[in-house]
Design a protein that fits this description.
Structural class: mainly alpha
Keywords: DNA-binding, Transcription, Transcription regulation
CATH topology of the largest domain: Tetracycline Repressor, domain 2
Distance between the termini: 76 Å
Order of helices and strands: HHHHHHHHHH
InterPro entries: Homeodomain-like_sf, HTH-type_TetR-like_transc_reg, HTH_TetR, MT1864/Rv1816-like_C, Tet_transcr_reg_TetR-rel_C_sf
Low-confidence stretches: 118-127
Shape: globular
Number of strands: 0
Helix content: 55-70%
Strand content: under 5%
GO molecular function: DNA-binding transcription factor activity; transcription cis-regulatory region binding
CATH architecture of the largest domain: Orthogonal Bundle
Pfam family, one: TetR_N
Protein name: WHG domain-containing protein
Number of domains: 2
Largest sheet: none
CATH superfamily of the largest domain: Tetracycline Repressor, domain 2
Amino acid sequence: MSSPTRRGRARAATESDIRRTARNLLVGQGPEAVTLRAIARELGITAPALYRYYESRDDLLESLRLDVCTDLAAEIAEDIAELKDEGLLQLFQICKGFRRWALTHTKEFTLVFASPTGATGTATGSALRRLDEPFGRIFLAAAGHVLAQHDLVMPPNDVVPPELRDDLTAFQQDLLTVLKESGREIPPEKLDLGLTYLMITFWARLYGHVTLEVFGNYPIPVSKPDVLFEAMLTDLARDVGLYSD
């Protein structure tokens, strides 16, 4: 029996085949290796045949990024499945799970978190910035649970830099919507600009620490990175009034 024709192979290619191949290239070689030409070569078809499924490389990478975020969220959800009524424990387990995932999925982390454009050439932003995505929802749902259970030490609104207030106000409305949809509705008067600012800085410190560790960019050699990470989480908890000596 003769081997399938190129046209036949192209028809046989499915979106799942393309994304599976793209994921293999990402894990094996990094985001820069995920090109339509490389995928077509792996599948034994022509690159133009892929345009039946994706308009561009950016379109494909965006789909791949969403797949990675979904997988990350599923892994984190499993971590916290038995902590349903413990918002604080959930939040810090999410932080630890995020770090573990980043250190064991460095190429996926690079695609989703290590570039201001999500490595796709378009302004996609990070997985937390896109609050309606699985990882953002899990993180914010746990944060909302903490807000409902604890009185946090929040900066007053007047210490929020005036230049940031418009951005924070817009983000504040997004947070309220996502928290409500996640079953963690917070009274609008409680989620003021000071608290919104606190949530942003909390994420920035977590993300910055993990990014430094993933890429080996600590300013000094660290022989016990687990201890340093736990100390950072303790500092975060203390700063928002969740931990005291």
